[in-house]
Amino acid sequence: MHNVADGSLTAVPQTTQSSRAGANAALSRFAPDAGLFVLKPWRALFALVADWVLIAACLALAACWPHPLSYVVAAVVIARTQLALAVMMHESAHGTLLRNRRLNDALGQVCAAGPLFLSLASYRAGHIKHHLAPMRDDDPVAAVFGIADYPVSRARLVTRLLADVCGVSYFVGAWRIVRGDFREILPKAAKSPAYILWEVVTILATNGLLFAVLALCEHPWFYVGLWLLPAITLLPLMGRIRAILEHAGLPADDDQSLNARTIVTPSWQTFLFGPHGIHYHIEHHLYVRMPFYHLGKVHAQLSAAQLLPRGNLYTSYTDVLRAVSGNDKEAAVARR
């Protein structure tokens, strides 16, 4: 087995019972159906193909119907699907795409992380640390997404969302990472020079291929306007809303059902902000080795056993945003 420092998949225990329930004895004893932990690689492959087909369809729409409305629709759906690719990178980080570790990592880097200019290995190192102690002072997710200070005032929340959609958050966040603001919080992934080169090649190759295809179709500007621009503006907005839903304003606790939320009903909001079942976030934190396509089933089992905290279950993202924001006085009182 690898150790936690190398960001290994085995850093988080693999078990059918929850080792993330802390002192919650009833939840600790609960064991989901063992079949829910069995990987079905065809479902992961289908999801990845569907994501890229949807991206291609959006680009085709913009090409066949050159109109501001089609550009806006394409940009929104492409940004949403970039978020979906980030979720598939997340699945790969947990080793739940394919059974073979090398193939799992290669698929996640080439088809999900690389196109988004990301490193699967670096993401995994930070994400494993997040799962060990969500919302503690050294939680990488809380630090990078800026969700440690909720609840906040409604005005501050709106300001942050506007900064996202204007692209300010993207560049400020990138600069903070380059400057080393998170150096003490983000663990380093052990990567050889050859592996780093491999990651760079995947980033350049996937983005180069996308640009080349669009150029051959006589729409090279789509790469900037409908791929890079949504990634800089709309994707951070959707990512922030997703991160707020998952953990913002919740306490650090050994019982991880108490420091995550779940959207219980799939809808257009979960399509936009919680693709590939990531909106079942309590369930994911309790059973990190369960693939995304089974989270809805374990949610039903946990609900039937009345083991989910009712206060952390929501029907929409708008309800969560209201819950973590208010006027300045309300936010100050809630933080105390």
TrEMBL record:
Q: Which GO terms describe its cellular component?
A: membrane
Q: Name one GO molecular function term.
A: oxidoreductase activity, acting on paired donors, with oxidation of a pair of donors resulting in the reduction of molecular oxygen to two molecules of water
According to the entry, every stretch annotated as the Fatty acid desaturase domain falls at 67-314
Q: Name one GO biological process term.
A: lipid biosynthetic process
Its protein name is Fatty acid desaturase
Q: List all membrane-crossing ranges.
A: 44-63, 69-89, 195-215, 221-238
What species is this protein from? Paraburkholderia bryophila
The highest taxon in the source lineage is Bacteria
Keyword annotations for this protein, in alphabetical order, are:
Membrane, Transmembrane, Transmembrane helix
